Amino acid sequence: MFYDERIEKAKGRISRNAIILSVVISAALGAIRLTNILKNTDQSQYLCLVILEAVIILGGSVCLLIGFARGKTRPRDERTVFEESCFYNRAAPVLLKTVTLVFAFFLPIVLHRGLPNGYTDGGFNRILPVLFFAVGIYVIYEFRRNDIYFNYSLMEDEHYYRGVFKNIGRLALYILCLFAVSAISFTLFAVTKEPDRALLSRQLLQIAGYYMTVLPELSLLYLLYSFLEKTSYTSTRRLSRATAISLGITVLLYAVYTLITVSADALAGSQAQAVQAVSAASSLAFCIDFALLIFLTYFSYEYLKVKRNKLLSAACLTVLLSETLTFLIGEAWSGITVLFLREMIEYDDYTVKSLLNAGKTVLQDLSGTADMIGFSLMILALVKDKTIRKANLAVPIGFVVLGGVELFLRTQTGYLEVKIYHSLAEIAVLIYWCVLVACVEKRGTVPER
Known about the structure:
Blueprint: H1 5-40, H2 51-72, H3 78-113, H4 127-145, H5 160-190, H6 197-234, H7 241-267, H8 271-280, H9 282-306, H10 310-339, H11 341-346, H12 350-384, H13 395-410, H14 415-441
């Protein structure tokens, strides 16, 4: 694909908004984590647990201030707008590299110092997966909405996948550099402490293990997304295989997660052990939500590319916002819960415990309702376009029935039983969407590029 000034301008705007989102999210969650640290310890050495949030806030603010100043000190013409976009396109990767380098340097230090007593708000890198989900979904959605590809410079290259694997190689080299930074930091920090070879060896293995895990995860994710992009770009159908594959991955992940939940409920010795086993698989739930939102992004983009439908666009955006906001509010709520964890344990404060649990339940119910509305509107939009039959209008009633059954089960069974039902119900809804996608895909082809 050739160089396009429109693409650079759109990427600049998206990069600027991504920096703003990163700063706002880091400030909100960082404030909760900092309060938790100050509440549980009076030792300043543990402030390094919020170093990443501090770097994101400071670095992002500097980028935004420079960009704002550049725009105000120059006449507002096409050239200025383009140069401002180019600045943000350069600033976003620099900020990302700065954050990852700081992470690499402080990782050995945090592992050696450990966590203060009573602090259970996750590791110091918790902000990274949060931003990966929230900002990542925003960037993917905006790229699709503006018809931009992450690999747009490779799209018309006959050796597309060779270029993709070259990028994976560059990623591997960068992660190797991060490991080198961690190794140097580890060495400098270790020589100033009492040498304990067993402890130091264990920490070094933890550091190496972290990078050895991150590299294949990111490489596989990038390779998969590159495949989806290429499939979508070359498709002549109304919906490409990228939409079907992303939905299929969502169903598969959800099925595995449900199997883990059922196994935990059947094999665990107690309810507490079962809940703990399910919580350990929370990273899989993270992947499910991410895959679902990628499917919705591709579905709306490819359908709207052929036929404009404001209702469908608004419905997809409703689900995207619902899932993203639920994830972010859930992170903040977990941090707030941790603030009162000591009191709930020491004083068995039933009121606080009930309020926090009730708040979490209300959040989940609101998210489920928003998703139900969003999916129902999508069905209505497809029926109005005569893409699917009118009989599908009865499906939203089924959504309400499924929700009502879950509310009833909450009063009759335990937590895990309700969770299993919820998972099975959502898998059924996703399978229904597999059928819908197949129906939409058969409706015709799209114009050639």
